[in-house]
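agent> fetching stored inputs for the phosphoric acid mono(formamide)ester docking request
agent> found them:
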Amino acid sequence: MTKIALNKSVWKKKDLLGLEYLSKEEIEFILYTAGSFKEVTTRQIKKVPALRGKTVVNLFYEPSTRTRTSFELAAKRLSADVINIATESSSVKKGETLIDTGKNIEALKIDTIVVRHNCSGAANILARSVSSSVVNAGDGWHEHPTQALLDMFTLKEKLGKIEGLKVSIIGDIAHSRVARSNMWGFTKLGAKVTVCAPAMLIPEGIEKFGVKATNDLAEALDGADAINVLRMQFERDSAVAFPSKLEYFKRYGITSEKLAGCGKNIVVMHPGPINRGIEMSSEVADGKNSVILDQVTNGIAVRMAVLYLVSTAKDGQR
Ligand code: CP
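agent> prediction call returned; pasting tokens
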């Protein structure tokens, strides 16, 4: 914790909206801070007073298991008070706008709003409308920055570095905020990123991310140090991109046989939730190369770091 206090001047942003807006140094600093908080999460008493007296609001317009729960745990482990707003049972159902909801929550003297929304750009709009810190927990197809941060943290923990690694992102790139945050984050930290999907699921202009694109899974797996396998987002029309789920699994699904054929111990990541038998076999999801549950565990330390840094930056701006 002493190291964190000494170095907090590196971070000056009251919000975390996306990895597109962060420098390499800022990303590395979040990962470094998360490393300190990971130690806290292994103690018998997993709590520090870093955000005592602060209030964090989880405002989720879309379903979530991992992100919402780990933001709540992260805030509680920093000794913050936490309010969870499920929009299904809030005045959002009566037509209240995102900005009105944000301003009314802020009027209750809270400090940080963690927002998940189905519209790309929602977190940016909210951050411009309130003076509280805003953390993007996933907005439409735009970004899911804390997911990419925990992906990078987990891979660095496993392989000791990010720079120079070949990281392949496989699956529904077009509809994926995780893919966009991964592309920004991994390329900024010096990884060689390849994206792989059926042609319909690779968006035009993908080159601006500094990644290589292919429709050939063998090319994506060849020489890869790690793969991040994305969920097929059937709620966002992924299914129209290929004839059937079985055909998708045959061509793009990750199996033990396909991994064994690479002759390299590829680290397997997935942000969850997994469609077993579509994106990957259960054997791979639960196998020795999988770090999927490590990703979930690391989500707490990464989100503790983010909540702490945006909060201290906001205090510094007062
Ligand atoms: N990875 C992820 O965002 O999972 P949830 O939708 O469960 O939060």
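agent> quick read of the result: The radius of gyration is 19 Å.
agent> awaiting further instructions
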